[in-house]
Predict the 3D structure of the following.
Amino acid sequence: MENTSSLLKVVDLSFTHLGQTQPTIQNVNLTLNPGELVVLAGGTGSGKSTLLNCLTGIAPEHTGGKLSGQVFCRGEEITSWSIRMRSQLMGILLQNVETQIFTDQVWEELVFGLENWNLPPGEIQDLAQSALTEFDLVQQRDWTIHQLSAGQKQRLLLACLLTRQPDMLLLDEPFAFLDTAGVQLLLELLKKRVAQGQAVLLIEHRLELLRESCDRIYKIESGQVSLLASPLPVPTQTRAEPPPHTSKKDKPVVLKTENLSWGGYPPFPDLQVMAGDIVLLKGENGCGKTTLLKLLSGLLKPSTGQLEILGRDVTRQSVVTISRLLGFVLQNPNHQLFAESVEAEVTQSRVEPEQAKRLLKALNLSHCIQKHPHALSQGQKRRLALGAVLVREPKICLLDEIMVGQDPASLGLMLEALKTFTKKGGVLIFTSHDPGIATVLQPQVLLLH
Ligand SMILES: Nc1ncnc2c1ncn2[C@@H]1O[C@H](COP(=O)(O)OP(=O)(O)OP(=O)(O)O)[C@@H](O)[C@H]1O
Ligand SMILES: Nc1ncnc2c1ncn2[C@@H]1O[C@H](COP(=O)(O)OP(=O)(O)OP(=O)(O)O)[C@@H](O)[C@H]1O
């Protein structure tokens, strides 16, 4: 038995992933008490998700690997709590929103968790209905899960977690896909829960978001955890040089849309994009940004309208034909990494090995070129998916929320690679809820409703 006043106490915890020789986290000590909001920060690939998995017992019970040290929950070792008891104590949000949804329909997903707690049917209905309202999902009540946008999926998962009242919430980047209103909503809810005595431990890179609300920030670096001294350093974002003043007439039109629509929704605003242009698709969760990117890539075929690339009408062309002109980095990197190693992921497009190496270095992936892509951290996977697209030198690059969860240094590397791409005349069309990115890239903005 340990001191029971801490909800969670971690003593000298180290963990080595299955198949690895070096530990990913080493001699970690931390505590989480009732009524505290604690942040875990650190570079991409530093071990944050690994640590969270150790706290919940997911690692090593479900992942394999070697753990030493102890995790105490209410004074008893986490391994002595049954899964049922653990899930009563802990509400866990994993980083990949798609791995945690069990049913195929929004309302079913909400009531599924509550039914597992044997609550009376009337109470389940009331709790699920108020969660829908709170997370602005009333219109989506009867939608299937695959109709939801990433932000809506994240809202749904948070709604499921917060309808229950676990003693602690362990959240891996819960703000990642939320729009501005969603971020504010979640912040307020978490503060309220903390005031009621619940404890929250969450992973987030944008410390400025939580500067005023959190009790402590632990920083993880090279596998070691330390308390971040306050005051917090303010991240400096360099502003881009204003774009050179070239007349639009001088530049060739690369991509053009007219009256493009999908699924009975009103048409999207028309686009006319020139070589070197950077366009940000902006709008709230579920307004159709990903849908528009899929239409531009040929992955979805429009109900009405026309898509022209380099002067050619490609509206009815196959996705294979369109993909020769265009690269698409998807919102979920797990959907587009297929090779057996990081190196093979970028060399499979038959590029010069030296060119591939240069790109991997520019994206800070040189140290893991022999690793399996699915053994990377989420942020590393996103940089790799970007590298695998850029190495083919497409004319157009579509990016769907790929900058989420990057630490400032990694984000800087991604933005540099993208600036190099557009300087050579490449067109960049991207989505992002992060206002800092727009400051750096200075894109044209297409607002969707
Ligand atoms: N204008 C629209 N055109 C097509 N589908 C739309 C539109 N508006 C909403 N939808 C519906 O919303 C769903 C999710 O939209 P989408 O994934 O494109 O949103 P998003 O803007 O990318 O959201 P997020 O910011 O959460 O990633 C689509 O599957 C579709 O059912
Ligand atoms: N299943 C695995 N097998 C081997 N190595 C792994 C595995 N999962 C993660 N790693 C490695 O452990 C390190 C830490 O990964 P982790 O996902 O914990 O990082 P993170 O700090 O959460 O990163 P991000 O902010 O990018 O999500 C990375 O170098 C990653 O390559």
